[in-house]
Backbone:
């Protein structure tokens, strides 16, 4: 099975979840984990499973403006909580999932799944980027094989301890649900 895990990440949490999902999927075949700005159309088009995820910003996908706010928030956080300082993920300045889904996402009807990272609170209050990703991927012809999933961060934007294991199990469940395109 060939899988592609596409992620966007400002502070590294969605990147970390993408890496965990990628490592779990490796048990089932070939995997590429790539930042959304580096996805080559052919890579996604030739995969049996495409997993896409990123942070929830303002109840939805990030925008250029919310990414700028994320940078400001990181600077503020560094002065309030310097140990360890919040670092920006490589590629954070590039185009986001919103741009990719609008312009280039390609599907041959492959199996797909969406995740987000978001604050640890009721989804009704936080919103969930994964729902937006899932809806837009369906429009592009991807076949969603599971409900959108959220992995939670604390108020200092650190992934909760429980989430690495949950992401691992979620990914294994995906691998077992892939439908041949
Ligand atoms: C500008 C901005 C807006 C945010 N809006 C929301 C939100 O509406 N709901 C939520 O649960 N979390 C929100 N968050 C928290 C992010 O979801 C959290 O920082 C993210 O999961 C971190 O992922 P990353 O490390 O991959 O960037 C927001 C964060 C930023 C910087």
Residues:
């Amino acid at each position: 099975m060939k899988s592609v895990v596409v992620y966007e990440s400002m502070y590294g949490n969605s990147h970390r979840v993408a890496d965990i999902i990628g490592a779990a999927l490796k048990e089932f075949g070939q995997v590429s984990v790539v930042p959304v700005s580096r996805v080559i159309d052919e890579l996604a088009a030739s995969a049996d499973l495409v997993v896409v995820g990123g942070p929830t910003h303002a109840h939805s996908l990030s925008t250029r403006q919310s990414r700028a706010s994320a940078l400001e928030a990181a600077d503020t956080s560094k002065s309030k909580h310097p140990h360890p300082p919040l670092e920006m993920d490589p590629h954070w300045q590039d185009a986001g999932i919103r741009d990719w889904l609008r312009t280039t996402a390609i599907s041959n009807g492959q199996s797909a799944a969406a995740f987000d990272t978001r604050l640890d609170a009721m989804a009704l209050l936080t919103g969930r980027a994964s729902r937006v990703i899932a809806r837009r991927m369906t429009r592009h012809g991807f076949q969603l094989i599971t409900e959108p999933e959220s992995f939670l961060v604390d108020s200092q934007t650190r992934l909760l301890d429980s989430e690495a294991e949950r992401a691992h199990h979620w990914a294994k469940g995906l691998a077992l649900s892939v439908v041949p395109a």
In short: The pocket of flavin mononucleotide is lined by residues 9-14, 55-59, 66, 69-70, 73, 117-119, 126-127, 153, 157 (CB under 6 Å).
